[in-house]
Amino acid sequence: MSETKKVTHKKDSLAPALAISAALHLVLVIVLLVGADFGKTATPTPKAGSTIDATVIDPAVVNAQAQKIRQQRAQAKQEEAERLKRLEQQAQRLEQQREQEEQRLREVKRQKLEAERQAREEKKRLAEQKAQAEEQARIAREKAQQAERERQRKLEEKRQAELAAEQAEKARQQKLAEQRKAEEAAKKAEAERQRKLAERKKAEEEARKAEQARQEAERKAEEAKRRQQEQEAALNDLFSGLESEASQRQSARGQFIQDEVARYGAIFTQMIQQRLLVDDGLTGQECVVNMRLSPTGLLLDVKEKAGNTRLCRATKTAVVSVSQFPMPDDGDIIAKLREIELTVRPN
Q1: Which one of 35, 146, 219, 336 is at 20 to 30 Å from 50 when CA atoms are compared?
Q2: Please, what's the b/e burial string for 120-144 (b: 16 or more CB within 10 A of its CB; e: otherwise)?
Q3: What InterPro entries does its record include (predicted)?
Q4: pLDDT, tens digit, for every residue of 6-18?
Q5: pTM over 0.70
Q6: Residue pLDDT, tens place only, 25-39
Q7: What is the full DSSP assignment across 258-307?
Q8: Which helix (H) or strand (E) holds 47?
């Protein structure tokens, strides 16, 4: 298409030169014809009393004029050829610039598509990491719950052992006459008590280890969250120039804060329930409390909002027993957790 434009442009630029050349040829033909007519006309016999006027065309003048016309045509043709050459060179430069611009635009488009592909892959990888962290936290919670059930079972065994010791003591008092047999029974009861005490210490040690495992799981979850925040910051830098992506990141940030607040609320509730001492008569009841925490998780105040009175008293005691709650590093999440409302239900 560019070659067609060049040919059309050349034809348009030759039109003025061709018109000038045709006009000069026409003048030359007229001059030659007039000169030929004068040369062929015989000189008439002068009449008496008449004046004869004659015009003579000098061939040298005509030839000089023709030569001048030919020189002008040659000069005009040369100038036109030079002008066409300059236009052709300019058109070539413009074509090269157009091709370079098209190549640059193709490269920009390719880089943009590559950046979008990398962003999609990074987003997918972050989602997988988050899912793994949540799964690890769930496993840690299950282990903590299992350890708590084991502790309750050991406490029940301890209560049964203490009851057995009391019964043995009553038997000793009833059989005071049989001193030796009673002392033997007392020795056996003491041995049983020592065994139960050892089991109690073992259960407390297992509970302590379970608590350490839970804290380690929370630490790993916090580490995963920190890495996720760093990766989100990198994505924010990558897409800082795209308004639509910025809007999506802002929405994702809000959802992330809500999810983290809910997750920490569940951790707080679990810590309170582990220290909750209630009887079976409160099963199915619930208590709503409002806690006010410092930025480091230190308990500042706890208030009863609604629920069973006895359960709320036990809940407040359990909250005070915890006293220090884990807090994230994110300032926005901390602001949401500093005053939080929790619903506690006996397991």
Answers
A1: 35
A2: eeeeeebeeeeeebeeebeebbeeb
A3: Tol-Pal_TolA
A4: 444 444 555 555 5
A5: no
A6: 576 656 555 444 444
A7: HHHHHHHHHHHHHHHHHT----GGGTT--EEEEEEE-TT-BEEEEEEEEE
A8: none
Neighbouring C-beta atoms of residue 29, cutoff 10 Å? 10
The rounded Cα 251 to chain-centroid distance in angstroms is 11
Cβ neighbours of residue 133 closer than 8 Å, sequence gap 6 or more: 220, 221, 224, 225, 228
Only one residue has tokens 């004068």, namely: 38
Tell the residue number behind the tokens 């490269």, with chain if given: 107
Residue type, 67: Q
Amino acid, res. 341 = E
Alpha helices per DSSP H over the chain: 2-40, 59-174, 179-238, 243-274, 309-322, 331-337
Say if residues 235 and 120 touch (Cβ distance below 8 Å): no
Cα–Cα distance list, 305 to 77, 291, 302, 313 (Å)? 103, 10, 10, 12
Q: State which residues of the chain have pLDDT below 50.
A: 1, 3-11, 34-54
Q: In what order do the strands lie in the sheet with 299-307?
A: 299-307, 287-293, 339-344
- State which amino acid sits at residue 274: Q
Long-range pairs of 284-287 with CB within 8 A, sequence gap ≥ 24: 284/345, 284/346, 285/311, 285/345, 285/346, 286/311, 286/343, 286/344, 286/345, 287/311, 287/312, 287/315, 287/343, 287/344, 287/345
What's the CA gap between 136 and 291, in Å, rounded? Answer: 27
What CATH fold (topology level) applies to the domain 239-347?
A: 3.30.1150
CA-CA distances (angstroms) from residue 299 to 88, 274, 291, 318? 84, 17, 7, 12
Structure tokens at 134: 């949540």
Distance CA 24, CA 72 (A): 9
Chain centroid to Cα 135, Å, comes to 23
- State the pLDDT at residue 39: 43
Q: What type of residue is 247?
A: S
Identify whether the C-beta of residue 325 lies closer than 8 Å to the C-beta of residue 263.
no
Residues near 191 by beta carbon (within 8 Å), at least 6 away in sequence: none
